[in-house]
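Record type: ASSEMBLY
Status: queued
Input:
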Amino acid sequence: MKASIRIAAMATVGAGALFAASSAFAQAPIKIGFISSMSGPEGVIGRDLKDAFDLAIKTGGGKMGGRPVEIVYGDDQVKPDVGRQVADKMLDSDKVQIVTGINFSNVLLAVVKPVLDSGAFYISLNAGPSVLAGKQCNPHLFSVGFQNDNNFEGLGKYLKDKGVKKVYFLAPNYPAGKDMLTGFKRYFQGQMDAEIFTAMGQLDYSAEIAQLRAAKPEAVVMFYPGGMGINFVKQYAQAGLMSQIPLYTGPGTVDQTTLPAIGDAALGMYTGAMWSEFLDNPASKKFYADFEAAYNRIPSQYAAQAYDTARVIQAAVDSIGGKIEDKAAFQKALENVKFDSVRGNFKFNTNHFPIQDYYLVQVEKDGKGRLVSALKEKIMSNLADAYAGDCSMK
Amino acid sequence: MSLSLFIEQSLNGVQLGVMLFLMAAGLTLVFGIMNLINLAHGSLYMAGAFFAAAFIKLTGSFVLAVLLALPAAAIVGAFVEWAVLRRFYSRGHLDQVLVTFGLILVFNDVVRMIWGVVPVPLPPPDALAGSVHLFEGVFYPAFRLAILAVGALVALALYFVVSHTRVGMWIRAGASNRPMASALGVDVELVFSLVFSAGAALAGLAGLMAGPITAVQVGMGEPILILALVVTVIGGIGSIRGAFVAALIIGIGDTFGRVLLPPALGSMVIFMLMAAILAWRPKGLFPVHG
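Status: finished
Output:
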C-alpha cells in the first residue's frame, strides 16, 4: 500500500514535471558514487576502471536521460572498513543514487549492505562473490562483470574437452581463490594433481614451482591477481617451465595492468577471459580505439567491464527518461537493458548476474611489439552462474 | 620427497635466506649502531629496484644499471639521513617509527608521481634469464644462483669490513657502547652518515636483485620489510652474523614449511620460529648490546 502510494506520488511528480516542462526536476544531476582501489600497488586497477568509466560517460555526452551526471570518487585502499566509510559518506552527504567501482570481493561484501539498505543501487563492474549471486541476491544489486567462478568454469571445460587429465592448481588462500577452484572443478571434473593455496601477497614461489615440476602435470592453472601474478609468472618462466607445461589463468592476472611489468616472460600464457582487445564487434573496436586515443595505452579487461557498466547505466537511465527516482522502473530498465556490449553477447540472468560468452586468449606480441591478449577461441557460450537457483530476488 | 627435489628445495631455502639477509643487513646495522628504527628501509629497497629499472631502460645493460643504482640509492639514503632522520637520533623510538612511517608514504607517492601506477619491467640480464642444469633432475634459475653469489659476497665483505678494518672497529664500538665510543674520539656523526648510506645501498642492492623475480611496483618494500624486521630481531639487533644466520633459518624454515605443512600453518612458520627463538634467547641469537 505504502509502496503504491509512493509510486503514484512519484508518477504524479514525474508527469507534472514532464507536462509543466519544469527544468528543475529534469536538470537535477544523477549522482553516482565510484569507489575503487586508487592507491597502493592495486592503484593500477582503480585507474583502469576509472578511466574507462569516465570515457563511457564522456562518450555519452555527460548526460543520462537528459540529466547531467555527477560522479563522486572514493578510494577504498583495498580495505573493507575504509570502503565502508567512504560509502557511508557518499550515501549520507553526497546523496548518491548509484554506487559502483569496487574491484575486490571482500571490499564489496562490506559496502554492499549499507548501499542497498539506504535505497541506492549497487552495480558491480568486477567483483562477483558467490553469495551475492545466490542467497543474498537483491533487486537493487546488479553485476555487469561476472560471477567469480565463471572465467575458471570456461577454463575447466576447455581443458576437459582438450583431454587434459592431470592439472595442478594454485591460488592465494582467500575467498575468491576458493571460488575460482570451485568454478574450475565444476566443469573440469578430472583429476587434480594438487590444489595449492598460498599466503596472500607471497613474494617467492620457488618452493611451489619446484614441487610442481616434480609432479609433472599436463597443465598448471593458477589465479594470482596483481603483484602476486607478476611474481609467479616471472619465476615460472625463469624456471624454464613456460615451454614445458602450459600455464593457464583467469581475470586480473595477466592483462594490461601487469603485462608491461612481466614482459616477455609472459609470452605463451593462456587466460580464460570474457573480453579480448581483438574481439570482433563494433562496440569493442570503438572502445579500444577511443581508450587508446584518450589514454595512450591498451585497455585491460577491467577497463572493458567498467566501460560496459557505465553504458548499462546509461542505457537503462535513458530508456526511462532519466527518472531513476522511480526505483521499480529503474530496476526493470536495468533487467531488460539493451546496449551493445563490448563483449558482444550479454544479458542479465534472473539473479542480475551476466549470461555471457567466455574466450581463451594467449599472450602474444602485436605489430608494434607490445604484449597483447590475442583471441584464440570461444570456450563457453551463454554461460550462466551456478548460484542463480539459490536466488529468490526479494 | 626425492633427493633431487630435497636438494632443490634446500637451495630455494638458502636463496630466500640470502635475499632476506641482503635486506636485513642494512636494517640491523642502522638499528644496532644508530639505535634508529627505520621503517623506510623498505622504501630504499623500492628505490633500488626502480633506479635499476630506469637505468636498464637508459643503458640497456644490467651490470651498468647495478653500478648506477647502488650509488643512487646510497645518495637518497644520505639525503634522507641529513634532511630528516639526523634530528631523530636522540628522540624516542615511537617518534622514529612515526617519522619513518611518514617517509614510507612520501616515498610511495614520489615513486608514483615519477613512474606511474603500473608496475615497471626489470628483466634479468639475458645471460641469466633461463635456468641451469645443475645435476641429474635439478634445473635451477640462473638469476637465483646470481642472488646466492651476491649474497655470499656481501656477507664476506661485511664480515671483513666489520671485523678487520678501523671503520669496522668504530662500528662495533658504536654498537656495543655508544657514549663510550664517542668519548674515545670516534666521530659518531660521520660514522652514522656512512652507516646509513651503506645501509641504504644494501637495501637498494636487495631491491634490484629482487626486481627480476618479483613485481617492481609502488609499495613493494613493505612486505619484505616485515620479514627483514623478523630476521633482525631473531639474529640479535646490530649483529651482521646474527642477521645472516637468522636469514638462513627463516629462508629454509619458510620454504619447507610451505611445502610440507597445510597452507594456514605454512605461512605461520616464520612467526612460530621467531616466537620459539625469542623465548629461548630473548635478545636474539647473537646479542650485541651486553
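Annotation: The two ends of chain A are 17 Å apart (CA to CA).
Annotation: The longest helix of chain A spans residues 2-20.
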